[in-house]
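tool_call: predict_structure(chain=1)
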Amino acid sequence: MKKIKVIVFDMDGTLTDTGSSTWTVAHEAFGTLNDAKPHKELFEAKKIDVFEWGVLDISLWTRKGVTKQDLERVFQNIKLVEGVEETLKELKSKGYKIALVTGGLSVVAEMIAKKFGFDYVFSSELAFDYDGLVVGLRRMYDFETKVDALKEIAEKEGIGFDRIAVVGDSSNDIDMFKKAGFRVAFCPDSKELEKVADVVVNKKNLKEILKYF
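tool_result:
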């Protein structure tokens, strides 16, 4: 294996410790969780794709008059997994570049990326009008589009996938794991993810990954 240059992190459940996705946290905060459930059912029944699912969910927030500022308030004190700050700081001090690739909400991803100095961030990007009102969805990241993010990182860095490591916790990360040169399943909720991982970390402290980098 060639020397790893970029370490890619999932966000929901890997860096954040909310017990659910940032989408669910937002629905709970805005009182739209029950109204969103039929959208998930349509997706699981393969009647809509993941982007259409996201558009339907966001339309609930638009009708509620949710703004970017509202989202920022909900997530301003989001709970992070233990050891996140120390781990990211040490990885950067060792010369690694760090990337965030997540299906989670862009508002949260951008806040975390700015706080910890991520070199790349790819997230489900919301659209806002001039007053900050949530009006739509620009892009959604899932299995396939997460791999697209990996490709973009590799191209910009001028490296192969074998020099990229991925740290994630769910089945949404499986396609990235299959491409990456080194794979860490962090407190995984998917047996399928464990099968394609090089390392499985079951202690919920991100500093546990440092021994591998």
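agent: The two ends are 13 Å apart (CA to CA). Proceeding to next step.
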